[in-house]
Design brief:
The chain has 13 helices and 15 strands. 32% of the residues lie in helices and 26% in strands. It has a 7-stranded mixed β-sheet with strand order 10-12-7-13-11-15-14, sandwiched between helices. A 4-stranded mixed β-sheet has the order 3-6-4-5, with helices on one face. It is found in: Cytoplasm.
């Protein structure tokens, strides 16, 4: 049986706002973000902002012989802690969009629409609008419509200045144009596309290292040419448009892509190679960007741990027919996407399989191909 109320309890009026949820602030946030969202809309988006569901005209599917829908969902991880600490919120959207749409383009699919979800301790309209403006800007880069989203206020669960973001997207690919291990063959060439920095994976390791050495985010780091916080908040590169353009420019010759996210280069590349083949990655084809060397040295992090945690300067890999590899590299570089030949695909050898931590066979539940990391980095 419940206890009787005190006079003070009986007189106290509890409202939703008093409980920590400000509905009016949520409405103001929507008004502030409307313009950014609408800027991503194409003629296929039906209705405006604020409906219960985002609508997309699917009649475009009629032009496909056999369309496959591709979908992906992801978040940003603990990189949001850097954004919150620096009170900069208009770039984290690129990290979210990149993590989602670039997983979709890996199979050759064009991501056509996306939705987002923001959970926060308190709705600050300007902060929420800044987050969504970044998401919308990245969607424009990818050519993806932002058709809906949700902002949830969770007082008592998240602190007043805390938030987390997540998103999901859907793409379309013709069934007989699906990219992946079935297309990869002996003699294919690996093409690296440069990352803009750490992107959105491995921040638990990075934050552990900087806390260990006692560095502040406003520390000027000569090797970086800017503050540590500015480097750590560098937005993720969104590769979708470059990948789709590569497919269209060299039809039939692009066989697979690998998005280098959690798990590092070798583990993610192994996922898109067939059993019996391995990608030989030549480390001496690139120099480690300063931030990765800095993290490794400051935390005395073993190279093997760095390689299976961070992208180390390569954010996307294209697996292409060897005959067009040099042309593909030139094409990407002409588009402004720094690229180079990373290595080659060949059969798995006994010597490679005995290479210890330099050899990876299958990854993330995929019993696929293998990757051999060979040589030393150029720096």
């Amino acid at each position: 049986m419940s206890q009787p109320q005190t006079p003070e309890q009986a007189e106290h009026v509890i409202t939703y706002a008093e409980a920590g949820v400000d509905v009016e602030a949520g409405d103001r946030a929507v008004e502030l973000m409307k313009g950014a969202i609408k800027a991503t809309h194409t003629a296929n988006v039906v209705g405006g902002v604020g409906g219960f569901a985002g609508l997309y005209d699917a009649s475009a599917l009629l032009k496909y012989r056999k369309p496959y829908l591709a979908t992906s969902t992801d978040g940003v991880g603990t990189k949001v802690a850097i954004a919150q600490a620096m009170d900069i919120h208009d770039t984290i959207g690129f990290d979210l969009v990149g993590m989602v749409v670039d997983d979709i383009v890996v199979v050759g699919a064009e991501p056509v629409f996306m939705t987002d979800y923001i959970a926060c301790g308190k709705v600050v309209p300007e902060r929420i609008a800044a987050i969504v403006s970044g998401i919308a800007a990245a969607c424009q880069v990818a050519g993806t419509a932002l058709v809906g989203g949700e902002t949830a206020e969770h007082p008592g669960l998240l602190g007043e200045h805390e938030y987390d973001v997540a998103g999901a997207a859907t793409g379309i690919v013709e069934a007989d144009e699906l990219l992946g291990p079935d297309r990869v063959k002996d003699g294919d060439v690996l093409i690296a596309m440069a990352s803009s920095g750490i992107h959105s994976n491995g921040y638990s390791l990075v934050r552990r290292v900087i806390n260990h050495v006692g560095w502040s985010l406003d520390r000027e780091v000569s090797e970086l040419g800017r503050t540590l916080g500015e480097e750590l908040l560098e937005p993720t590169t969104v590769y979708t448009a470059d990948c789709l353009d590569l497919i269209r420019t060299f039809p039939g010759d692009v066989h697979a892509f690998s998005h280098v996210t959690g798990g590092g280069l070798a583990a993610n590349l192994a996922r898109v190679l067939p059993t019996g083949l391995m990608g030989v990655v030549e480390r001496d084809t690139w120099s480690l960007p300063a931030i990765f060397s800095l993290v490794g040295q400051a935390g005395n992090v073993p190279l093997a741990d760095l390689e299976r945690t961070l992208n180390l300067g390569v954010g996307m890999i294209a697996v292409v027919d060897g005959a067009i590899a040099n042309d593909a590299v030139a094409h990407l570089n002409n588009r402004g996407m720094k690229s180079w030949v990373l290595g080659q695909v060949g059969p798995v050898t006994d010597a490679a399989a005995a290479a210890g931590t330099d050899f990876v066979q299958g990854a993330k539940g995929v019993d696929g191909g293998a990757v051999l990391m060979q040589g030393n980095y150029a720096n």
